[in-house]
Target: Probable periplasmic serine endoprotease DegP-like
Amino acid sequence: MVTRCTQFLLTLCLLISASACARGLPEVTELIEQNSPAVVKINTMDRRQASRGGVPPQYRQEIPDIFRHLLEPRRREQRPVTSMGSGFIVSGDGYVVTNNHVVDGADEVTVTLTDRREFKAKVIGSDSSSDLALLKIDAEGLPSLKWGDSDDLKVGEWVVAIGSPFGLDYSASAGIVSAMGRSIPNESRENYVPFIQTDVAINPGNSGGPLFNLDGEVVGINSQIFTRSGGSIGLSFAVPASLARDVVAQLKEKGQVDRGWLGVGIQDVDLNLARAMGLGKPHGALVAQVEAGAPAAEAGILAGDIITRFDGHKILEQGDLPHMVGRTRPGSTVTVDLMRKGERKKVQVTVGTLPGGDEDQQVASDNGPSTDDVGGRLGLVVGEIPDGLRQRWGVDTGVLVKQVVPGKPGAQAGLRSGDIIAQLGFDEVENMKDYDRVVDELPGGELLPIRFFRAGQPTFRTIQIDE
Model:
């Protein structure tokens, strides 16, 4: 009798354990089967050529003729540079979402569906700050995915990714949400994305692919990984759907993204500063600098203030503030809670437009047909730098890129709207008059240096006019 009871209890425990395991490890086969057809593979091609050698023209006359040919630029043909990524269809008429870095600088973008159909894609708009891009393919009746609410995600919740890691088409992987709201500044030191951190196996080629919740809704766009090996080590980051949905809507509507702007420089609050300011514990964003004439200055925010809430949302650390401000529509009036000299205050701020947005630039897009006369020899529409942008980036001379014509030399050089050109060839560009003169004199068929500023950071690349 004792033996039978023991066996019964043992069997019951095993059944309970099995049931618990079943609840802990979700079944995702149906999710993958239903949603894979709307996930796409993206291949890009960059046909730019490289050269080596060369010497500035102003020094060529100093070189004896017998040696000059050794220092002349020697062009070498290169195979087109190709890369790959993932994406997903968001509407049946052919709109596709992916990462900006997947298509940035590409001459040709090809979208491949699970049924092996291939389409040439047009870049409707891209946004480097959120690392998102919107493509369009000429097709109808396509399967599409549904956006979910990433704000409802919890740490420990199961999520699934589908993409093409290392070119292995339509691979699925699963894991859990490891953290929410991760602040990871991009190469331009911008920090507008509160990333979702997961331990899902994400590898090169997964970029731009969807991250699903267990309801089959897109809650994130896989964007980057942290790795020392080149492959997944369990630290992957996705752009949250709550942000991506608004960015995609703006790209579809006008080809660019307008972001909110306060005009403050901020830093973290340490324990000693928190105590001195009467906070009790470290939180908030310390205002280190206020730009003259910026929305924060107009609202009366001062250097030394600690912003603790923005539009009702807590600011736990400095990275939270740009996330919230960037998502706020320009022109909105919000309440900002702050601590000033130990006293709590509330101010009303009318959020401005981040310089480099609609008022200062246009994002490159293929919304309309380009013609040979748009943008001149370089395919760039440029203008003088607005005063607000000069102050923001600390750039006194140059010309502002307002539009980049796809397929032209400027686009092939990787220029974007919002860049500030300071040098073409070996000539400085201080204003529009300099720019027009230098462009007219640029030789065709040679790789030439171009220096420009992106978000205040100087960058050198090469540009070539194929004439």
